Amino acid sequence: MRAGVALLSEKGFSATGLEQILQQVGVPKGSFYHYFTSKNEFGLAIIDAYADYFAKRLDRAFVHTNLSPLSRIKFFMDDARAGMARFDFRRGCVVGNLGQEMGSLPNIFQEQLHGVLLDWQRRTALVFAEAQSVGELDARHNCESLAAFFWIGWEGVVLRAKLERSPDPIDIFSETFMALLTR
Amino acid sequence: MRAGVALLSEKGFSATGLEQILQQVGVPKGSFYHYFTSKNEFGLAIIDAYADYFAKRLDRAFVHTNLSPLSRIKFFMDDARAGMARFDFRRGCVVGNLGQEMGSLPNIFQEQLHGVLLDWQRRTALVFAEAQSVGELDARHNCESLAAFFWIGWEGVVLRAKLERSPDPIDIFSETFMALLTR
User: Fold this and answer.
1) I want to staple A125 with a disulfide (CB 3.0 to 4.6 A). Which of A147, A173, B2, B62 is the partner?
2) What is the CATH number of domain B47-182?
């Protein structure tokens, strides 16, 4: 599973061969098919595992913290930047990669990927609502729309940082987004 | 070339077989290799063709128009929405698709894709600067950063609209972006 997450965050689903994953971890094909009926089932399990991992990461940034609400959003972006830097901006987001590949994936992936994004948005909307309640964010903002806007844009950020192999897109997005929220 | 653009905007590069493209247009492999030495060379030519097509589209929205500057940005988003709707939100952006696939593409694609995005940003920054000069946009905004922010986010929009097979992400991004600029 870990090897699958790593390869899917780097290359996506279509470009990653099952053989490549199994070779890397020294697991024979027969053993794989004991646990999964197909590469697709494996892909769906990887999305689940990634969603669990990411939920913990969001909790660390958004819940278990003394930061002000808007600083938590900033912290998440800085943390993601550090995470991408660790892999030389070669690994992106499993959900974004597979989302981009929907044209060649079975429809069952769609619902699962969308569900994960809606969960992230829900968590983020709570932070924006808290920012409003402490006066950090203007009350005119619609927190749900703002959270959706953030995640729609954020998948673009990860894509672009991978494309450029550079933190620059993360920095530009982060600075501009915070400026737009607080000016 | 047209069949290639269509398939690459829908499925990306890795998931699109050369045979599939050639079969669709009834071109034998030998004829293909008369014009291109490899699938990679064909891919780079497709990016060029897509960039030309898209530059005309941006000129239509940004230059050949009587709209106010910020209305041109809105027009571009509405126009892109209509374009995606025409293909049932199955086709996205060739540049975004291939950008997402950088992990499995040769490095030569990186420079070309990045160059196209910088061109789009340059054109967009001019519109924001004009918006400032007519008082539609606050002078505190950095037009280059804002244009980069827009294109970083916009590739996320296209990805998400494809994932959801729906215009909703375009609408949320468009409305929220215009609200953030003008409130």
Assistant:
1) A147
2) 1.10.357.10
